[in-house]
Design a protein that fits this description.
The chain has 249 residues and is an alpha/beta fold. It is built from eight helices and six strands; from the N terminus they run H-H-H-H-E-H-E-E-E-H-E-H-H-E. The protein has a six-stranded mixed β-sheet. Strand 1, helix 5 and strand 2 form a beta-alpha-beta unit. Helix 3 packs across helix 7. The longest helix has 32 residues.
């Protein structure tokens, strides 16, 4: 960084930067050479652990980027999906009850909700699309827990709720929804009989050159090491529906 600033900002001659950089590099290489002998006496172990952790983290990060991109395309725009329900283009039969769909944000439609509409041709009388946001603070004040968005229509029974939690808090979905003001939720929610829908993504190896084949196998293997979403969010088991989909990486 120093040499970059000296070259770009101070217009220091290149020969002078090369001379100074060469001297510093020579000293650093002497230190590296002196420490190379420690590799044979056990230093390889922390290096191996660090390399393994780095490989896992970079593979997971790249894989999540690919899954997020493909999932966003599969889900489609939530406002457009709500508009189709409103206009009748998505032919559905309204059934009584409250349905809660957990989703990443309010930009895309939950896969479970889209499958319910496109394959079962039904939608519930009350629909809550819930996004959980983990804030970079230990605990979120109660007055900032919930943000409600009616998605453009105040009488269609579909609302989006963002619940904010700190990283030291465990999300409690039923308890959070019980705090909703009925006026914001377009009517009182019947949480004692509400159904909760989760979207489960199954990963498959695709032919697209998105990652090296061994990276794909590693990412798919690590994707199974996840917490049980229903238990983590405090959902009642007997009223939780898991709808699956698959994505190729």
């Amino acid at each position: 960084m120093f040499f970059y600033v000296a070259h770009a900002k101070w217009a220091t001659p290149t020969w002078l930067l090369a001379l100074g950089g060469g001297l510093l590099l020579f000293v650093d290489l002497l230190f590296v050479a002196a420490n190379m002998t420690k590799l044979w006496h056990g230093a390889w172990l922390p290096l191996l652990i660090g390399l393994t952790a780095f490989t896992l983290m970079t593979t997971w990060q790249r894989g999540r980027e690919l899954v997020t991109e493909q999932r966003a395309r599969a889900e489609g725009s939530l406002p457009e999906f709500v508009d189709d329900l409103r206009s009748g283009e998505a032919v559905t039969r309204q059934v009584p009850g409250t349905a809660v769909f957990l989703n990443r944000d309010k930009e895309t439609a939950p896969l479970a909700m889209r499958a319910n509409v496109e394959h079962n041709h039904v939608r519930h009388e009350q629909v809550v699309i819930l996004s959980i946001s983990t804030e970079p603070v230990p605990r979120v004040p109660a007055e900032r827990w919930i943000v409600v968005d009616d998605l453009g229509y105040g009488d269609d029974g579909i609302v989006h709720v963002t619940a904010r939690f700190g990283y030291m808090e465990t999300p409690d979905v039923p308890g959070t929804l019980a705090m909703l003001d009925p006026a914001d939720a377009e009517g009182p929610l019947r949480l004692d009989q509400a159904s909760y829908f989760l979207s489960k993504i199954e990963l498959r190896r695709g032919k697209a050159p998105t990652m090296a084949p061994w990276h794909k196998r590693l990412f798919i293997a690590t994707s199974y090491i996840t917490a049980d979403a229903a238990e983590y969010f405090g959902l009642p088991r007997d009223r939780t529906v898991i709808m699956g989909s698959h994505i190729e990486v």
